[in-house]
């Protein structure tokens, strides 16, 4: 039995209690509108108010008020969702109804994550330990600067730095995080140590997650949802001079899990060498990186024919970006220009429908320029893309390549000191993947033949976004502030790639990934607001998505339609001189278009659900925090939207107790 009205009533009751006036707090003095750089991306590109981006920090990821895991946190952001496989620890980001096969460019510390698997799952995962994360940067729509290989947007997962561990002014220190949950008896722990000595700094961190299968809201155990993850992170930095810094990082991730019918053992290793040169000139802020990474999976157990299979993807590449500030009369210009190139090489044995040989190359020249003059802010970007795919399919060699020139223009105007309307026009391209192009073999057990497509073309997107940014103080009371963004987006995609029964140019008939004629479209409304009051903080995220996209066939990938509507509402209040924090989180997920396994016809599935979480934390000192939280308070029985299986329910009520210490 569903208890939707009871859930909402309970949340509103909690909200009323928390909203009782309290002692006044100082409002944040960060400026989000106008020609102020509010931060810098991993590549050094400035973040301006005209960008549709969400920057999640350590407090969002691991803070006392965080009531969910990384998947759940991403699902609370506007137009952001994830493919959910309870057994698979990987994260697959969906933006505006697009995911898989590189439509969303995913990376760890700027290193592309391009491991893909064609099956009953998302066609692309990021494997990174959330205990080792310092933040996640999500950008919606085409990106013309570094990391812009996917037209739907990008998601970069940033790992810890020495400065995240050290106290202000400290030369050495450490951090410990511990958490225990009752549902599945999961234990999570992380320990980090950092050192800064003169021009040298160093970080080492290790993390471990273990846990049994969890129970759903009805108390039934959901099989193969156990946790077994361990990770290590090592970073070095050295200032060669006041203007030149080199850095080096290593990340190792490993996990054992059960997904897509098999027990699997996976590793993800990333190495990166970086250089930053800032001689003090406004014209030069140069960043360069070279990197390599390898993700590999072994199928170690199960009852099917693919026990013993291995699949791997090794990615190598480099990027160079320079950011300049230039005065042009009454205008100022911030210009980020650069180049990036990378290569994927496949490996493995017994791949089945997945190729185990092949090489994909990508390269891009890019320029993003922000012009500012009084109330005007104009962002003009241009990205020149090139790709090539080479490999051997069942009946011959595949050697394809293509290029594109993708512009993006945003015009914003500061109409008042708190209201900034803007409009964005953009174009983007998504190259086909090796897994799409060289699909082959047959479904385990036979009967369904898969064929390659040596003539697969890239997807191209054109779209626009219109909206406004808000930043107003004194809305309802002295000392309060409302910030955020409201916008409408419209995206048209040509040559959209889906799996269809077809005949390829070699005369083979079967299921292949093919370009569809005509225009595929998605559009929607995004609302992201934060209200800060002297007595409480309130955050709201709402998305309405209307998809006119052909269905991806579950079984050759996974369905990717967003729910029609999602709503996330968070309320918190600080007490006892801001040492005690109490709060609640309410999430609503509607129904929407849905596709059953092995079908290509979508239908409306109106299975909505609501979740309520409660949280509390107490700061013993500035560096020692105890917290407790209860997720899915009302034990709702539900299947997460975009779940890998309609029979795998989400986690029932779960008590989390933990601590975070810095010393």
TrEMBL record:
Keywords: Cell outer membrane, Membrane, Receptor, Signal, TonB box, Transmembrane, Transmembrane beta strand, Transport. One of its GO terms (cellular component) is cell outer membrane. One of its GO terms (biological process) is siderophore transmembrane transport. Residues 55-153 form the TonB-dependent receptor plug domain. It holds the Pfam family Plug. GO terms for molecular function: heme transmembrane transporter activity; siderophore uptake transmembrane transporter activity. It is a multi-pass membrane protein. InterPro entries: Beta-barrel_TonB (IPR000531), Beta-barrel_TonB_sf (IPR036942), Plug_dom (IPR012910), Plug_dom_sf (IPR037066), TonB-dep_rcpt-like (IPR039426), TonB_haem/Hb_rcpt (IPR011276), TonB_rcpt_CS (IPR010917). Belongs to the TonB-dependent receptor family. NCBIfam families: TonB-hemin. This is Hemoglobin/transferrin/lactoferrin receptor protein. It comes from Rhodobacter aestuarii.
């Amino acid at each position: 039995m569903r208890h939707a009205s009871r859930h909402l009533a309970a949340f509103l009751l909690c909200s009323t209690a928390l909203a009782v006036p309290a002692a006044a707090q100082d409002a944040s003095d960060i400026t989000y509108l106008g020609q102020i750089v509010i931060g810098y991306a991993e590549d050094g590109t400035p973040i301006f108010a005209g960008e549709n981006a969400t920057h999640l920090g350590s407090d969002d990821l691991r803070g006392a008020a965080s009531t969910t895991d990384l998947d759940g946190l991403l699902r609370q952001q506007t137009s952001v969702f994830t493919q959910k496989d309870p057994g698979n620890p990987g994260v697959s980001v969906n933006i505006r109804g697009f995911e898989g096969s590189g439509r969303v460019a995913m990376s760890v510390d700027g290193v592309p994550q391009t491991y893909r698997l064609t099956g009953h799952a998302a066609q692309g995962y990021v494997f990174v330990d959330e205990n080792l994360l310092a933040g996640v940067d999500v950008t919606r729509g085409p990106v013309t600067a570094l990391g812009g290989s996917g037209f739907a947007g990008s998601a970069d997962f940033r790992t810890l730095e020495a400065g995240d561990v050290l106290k202000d002014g400290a030369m050495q220190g450490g951090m410990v995080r511990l958490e225990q949950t009752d549902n599945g008896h999961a234990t999570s722990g992380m320990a980090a140590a950092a050192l800064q000595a003169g021009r040298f700094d160093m970080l080492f961190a290790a993390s471990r997650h273990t846990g049994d299968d969890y129970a759903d809201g009805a108390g039934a155990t959901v099989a193969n949802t156990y946790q077994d993850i361990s990770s290590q992170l090592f970073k070095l930095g050295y200032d060669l001079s006041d203007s030149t810094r080199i850095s080096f990082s290593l990340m190792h991730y490993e996990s054992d899990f059960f997904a897509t019918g098999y027990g699997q053992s996976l590793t993800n290793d990333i190495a990166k060498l970086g250089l930053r040169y800032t001689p003090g000139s406004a014209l030069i802020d140069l960043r360069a990186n070279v990197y390599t990474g390898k993700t590999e999976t072994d199928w170690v157990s199960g009852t099917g024919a693919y026990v013993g299979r291995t699949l791997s993807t090794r990615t190598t590449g480099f990027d160079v970006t320079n950011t300049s500030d230039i005065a042009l009369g009454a205008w100022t210009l911030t210009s980020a220009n650069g180049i990036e190139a990378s290569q994927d090489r496949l490996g493995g044995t017994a791949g089945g429908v997945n190729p185990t040989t092949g090489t994909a190359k990508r390269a891009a020249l890019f320029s993003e320029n922000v012009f500012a003059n009084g109330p005007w802010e104009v962002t003009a970007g241009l990205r020149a893309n090139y790709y090539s795919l080479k490999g051997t399919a069942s009946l011959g060699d595949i050697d394809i390549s293509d290029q594109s020139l993708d512009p993006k223009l945003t015009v914003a105007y500061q109409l008042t000191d708190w209201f900034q309307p803007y409009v964005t026009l953009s174009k983007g391209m998504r190259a086909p993947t090796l897994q799409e192009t060289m699909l082959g073999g047959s479904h385990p057990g036979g009967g369904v033949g898969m064929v390659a497509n040596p003539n697969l073309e890239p997807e191209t997107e054109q779209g626009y976004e219109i909206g406004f940014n808000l930043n107003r103080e004194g809305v309802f009371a002295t000392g309060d502030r409302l910030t955020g963004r409201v916008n409408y987006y419209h995206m048209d995609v040509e040559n959209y790639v889906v799996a269809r029964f077809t005949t390829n140019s070699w005369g083979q008939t079967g299921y292949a990934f093919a370009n569809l004629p005509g225009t595929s479209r998605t559009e929607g409304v995004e609302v992201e607001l934060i209200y800060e009051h002297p007595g409480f903080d309130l955050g709201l995220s709402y998305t309405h998505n209307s998809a006119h996209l052909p269905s991806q066939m579950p079984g050759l990938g996974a369905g990717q339609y967003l729910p029609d509507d999602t709503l996330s509402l968070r309320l918190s209040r600080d007490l006892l001189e801001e040492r005690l924090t109490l709060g609640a989180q309410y999430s609503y997920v509607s129904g929407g278009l849905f596709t059953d396994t092995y079908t290509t016809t979508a239908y409306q599935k109106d299975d909505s659900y609501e979740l309520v979480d409660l949280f509390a934390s107490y700061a013993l000192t500035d560096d020692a925090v105890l917290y407790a939280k209860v997720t899915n308070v009302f034990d709702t029985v539900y299947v997460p939207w975009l779940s890998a299986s309609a029979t795998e329910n989400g986690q029932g009520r779960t008590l989390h107790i933990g601590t975070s210490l810095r010393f």
